[in-house]
Amino acid sequence: xxxxxxxxxxxxxxRVGLTPGAVREYVAHGHQVFVESGAGAGIGADDGVYxxxxxxxxxxxxxxxxxxxxxxxxKEPQPSEWAQLREGQILYTxxxxxxxxxxxAGLVKSGVTAIxxxxxxxxxxxxxxxxxxxxxxxxxxIQAGATALQKAHGGHGVLLGGVPGVLPGKVVVxxxxxxxxxxxxxxxxxxxxVTVIDRSIPRLRELDDIYNGRIHTRYSxxxxxEEECFSADVVIGAVLIPGAAAPKLVSREMLSGMKKGAVxxxxxxxxxxxxxxxxxxxxxxxxxxxxxxxHYCVANMPGAxxxxxxxxxxxxxxxxxxQLADKGLKALIDNPxxxxxxxxxxxxxxxxxxxxxxxxxxxxxxxxxxxx
Length: 372
Description:
The chain is of the alpha/beta class. It has two domains: 2-120 and 306-368, Rossmann fold, CATH 3.40.50; 131-304, NAD(P)-binding Rossmann-like Domain (Rossmann fold). Helices cover 36% and strands 16% of the residues. The protein is built from 15 helices and 15 strands. The strands form two sheets. It has an eight-stranded mixed β-sheet, with helices on both faces. Strands 9-8-7-10-11-13-12 form a seven-stranded mixed β-sheet, sandwiched between helices. The relative contact order is 0.15.
């Protein structure tokens, strides 16, 4: 198969869909790999490194899209990209379609077969291609929150770790999954006072055992979220409903009860955000203020640390990507976990959560897949 990797064009996105090491694996499987010139610049991999790995380096994205049977990316395609996709082509990347009707319409119109990293599953019920970026984003959320909390950045000037004789700052993490766990881990590590809120008692019990009294846990109710947010210095939004839009757990009304200069970090912004006042921001302009509360809602947080995150992402996506390259659409028939990643196929929406969120008729994946 001809596998293409264009340069990412989203604002301050420095990751790359295929690292040179991943290229070598595709080539070893007998596939031809096209990489756009400069695609690996953000991770310090120049065109010569890709050529040495066996890739054919092309000058433009247009050449990559036109010559490839499968496109491997990091972030969702931008308008100029989805216009270049076509029927019979496979797109393999993060999509986050539920809160993005324009992208969804573009992919439907293109006829492409679009597989979303964030809905591929595994035998344990996890999301293996989302997990590494959730780990990165969870850990970064504390760095971002701590920076935004500084007075010069609009915060009210609290050091999360405190110092001897001065209480530490309070971090509230809403959601105890991969993002929430990693946020809590970082917050505990710098000495913050940490509370994790989740609606799963078994998960809260597990976190309580892991941290052995170093964090507080609370069952998720409107009252619990309100009480914890009112006393928080930083609130991390870490909720996830696979494939679906995130629930709005912190209302605008709640902001009036929070400390002025407190910080909200919405890691769920890719799925629409879990704070009512959230809107996507970029690394070049990451924060804004609503009712005295600083909001950090960067939609591609792991892009800030591309060397780490690109390697972690490729480690996770390579196995399934090789299945797609080796077998084509038959890989979706053979592997039910990879099939769960299918969101769009030949103009039809094949993911239930996306169909429900955006008002499309659902096409069952097994019904629409045809393999000769």
